[in-house]
Amino acid sequence: MPGVGLAVATTSASFLSAAAFSSALAIPLSGIPVSILSGLALKNTNVLPPSLMSSSAAPGLKLSTTTLLRAGIVCVGMKLSFLDLLTSGLVGIPVVVSAMSAGFLYIPWASQKAGLSKELGSLLATGTTVCGVTAITAASPIVKASKADTAVAVANVVAFGTLGMLSFPYLAHHLFLTSPGCGTFLGVAIHDTSQVLGAGASYAQIYDNDAVLKIAAVTKLTRNLFLAGVVPGLAIQYAPSEKSGGEKDGTKAPPMNLAASFVKYTPGFVLGFVGASLFRSAGDATLLHSGSAFGCLDGDAWKTVVSGVGTTASTALLGTAMAAVGLSTSKESLKGVGAKPFLVGGSGALVVGGTGCAAIKTLEYAGIFV
């Protein structure tokens, strides 16, 4: 309880601070990355008794970074409806796939060339290409990343995602000819969901175009859906090698069964994430067909359920997990980080955004985005 209570208190204060800064600066600021920064500050400024951090709080902090984190990712699935993808997201899938592919090819390569750890490279690639902090928190235990690598990857998302949120609405308006082009660019080139929504809201306010906000949100949720495939893929990549008897005898080992490996290494929380998304989609479908979700919840009630689980619960759980990551990371582990991770993360963001931009321009000139 001491560790969980400390993480909850830290994230609560962080969300209040983020809300105050957002109101004062008129810039959307997510409390989740603020939570990890607050945890780092508390851990490394001797504000809390060392005995609390080293013994009493340790079990609860570990629980927060494992069980509570996984529960938060499952809850995120309630945000994702396949109906949204089918109605307004299909046209953007080629853009999402091309941009994500470029990121997953470039960032690990650049990380290796920069001398970064394989684990940090995977976190930078996943956070930049999929869904920001949520993807990093999902991938971190799978690749067995250190707390320091997780903190650095989150810092990249905060830094470059915030820059994109502030500048890309203006850039999109001048680069693209259509509302789908602008919205898809914001949804594919900015890291975190809150940052995408902030950029979309800014565009809607500046240029009086609400369609861009909706398209940006659907594009971002389409990216989030790929989490269900990326995490098992990383699990297979980082799985310990299993040598067969044939290898011991000098004969060639049988080829890997990818389907079996996918099932074996798919974490339970990813299945929960997909299950929550399917549940959301089924509720939306029954609401659309009969006027009530699952025959018992009207539109307002279903919206309350979706918001309570997909937004309120997921945000609280992920915020608590990120606060616990910060509270578990000492400054000694961050020494010598330097600028390389941020050079790789920044250049990776440019590659992902640039590839998305090129794909969108192609679709616009082809008359697909109108």
Automatic annotation (TrEMBL):
PANTHER family from the UniProt entry: INNER MEMBRANE PROTEIN YEIH-RELATED, UPF0324 INNER MEMBRANE PROTEIN YEIH
Family in the record: Belongs to the UPF0324 family.
Transmembrane annotation, as ranges: 86-108, 120-139, 151-171
Protein keywords: Cell membrane, Membrane, Transmembrane, Transmembrane helix
Keyword Transmembrane: yes
Protein name as catalogued: Uncharacterized protein
InterPro entries cross-referenced by the UniProt entry: UPF0324_pro
Annotated localization: Cell membrane
Membrane protein topology class: Multi-pass membrane protein
Major place of residence: membrane
Domain of life: Eukaryota
